[in-house]
Design goal:
Helix content is about 30%, strand content about 20%. It is of the alpha/beta class. The chain has a single domain, classed as Spore Coat Polysaccharide Biosynthesis Protein SpsA, Chain A (Alpha-Beta Complex). Helix 4 packs across helix 6. It is globular and about 40 Å long.
Length: about 230
């Protein structure tokens, strides 16, 4: 089974004031935190080893992980001096993934068992298609609980596309499998994963799988409170 990285270094500013004293991955949703829900999702899928990057209120996340004793190997990477952004954070952790494609996942999506078949499709795509250097899970914005989210991409014959002249219908769910080789020539330390995606789109090497699930993403304080009401948490 592939290794995975959970991106947990962000500030979560759109959830202030909650995230002024609590890092976003430790916000509770029912009996779980966003982070524990994601870890449990990966463990149930069969992932044995994960990497978690931390920065903002990092000691809280580290202490939480130490107390929980999850039943899989967890490597914590502390971004000490500055946050490295989504791309820089992944590049900083690349040594843990050798030359094998690995999963990156955001903990602010409410992952559940319905995503397992789609995760398998992501794995199959990057294993079977030599041209594919990254495969991401996207969802139609009509399926998003947060109706303010705008589309990021379109999908044409399994290829992710971006065109400023067209409306983007699909949202990135926060799950992708990526080949570490795409980071080889990157010299910057702080950069967005969007830089990598844009290059792969130009080369027609960024593939997508369209999710059939309703998309529950903790984006703002209002959405967080409304989701808790919806699920009676």
């Amino acid at each position: 089974m592939i290794r995975a990285m959970i991106l947990s270094a962000g500030y979560g500013k759109r959830l202030n004031p909650l995230t002024l004293k609590c890092p976003k991955p430790l916000l509770e949703i029912g009996k779980e935190t966003l982070l524990s829900n994601t870890i449990n999702f990966l463990e149930k899928y069969g992932v044995k080893e994960i990497v978690i990057n931390v920065h903002f209120l990092s000691d809280q996340i580290i202490n939480y992980l130490n107390k929980k004793n999850f039943n899989l190997s967890i490597n914590i990477i502390k971004e000490e001096d500055r946050i490295l952004d989504t791309g820089g954070g992944v590049l900083n952790a690349i040594k843990y993934f050798a030359d094998e494609p690995f999963l990156t996942i955001n903990p602010d999506t409410l992952w559940n068992d319905n995503y397992y078949d789609e995760l398998k499709l992501l794995e199959q795509k990057i294993k079977q298609d030599k041209k594919c250097k990254c495969t991401m899970l996207v969802v139609d914005k009509e399926k998003s609980f947060d109706k303010n989210l705008k589309g990021d991409f379109n999908l044409i014959k399994d290829l992710i596309t971006k065109n400023v002249e067209k409306k983007h219908q699909l949202i990135y769910t926060g799950m992708q499998i990526i080949d570490p080789k795409v980071f080889m020539d990157y010299k910057e330390k702080v950069f967005s994963i969007n830089n990598i995606w844009d290059q792969l789109i130009k080369e027609e090497k960024l593939f997508g799988v369209k999710s059939k699930n309703e998309f529950y993403h903790i984006s703002t304080l209002n959405i967080y409170e409304n989701l808790k009401k919806k699920f009676n948490y």
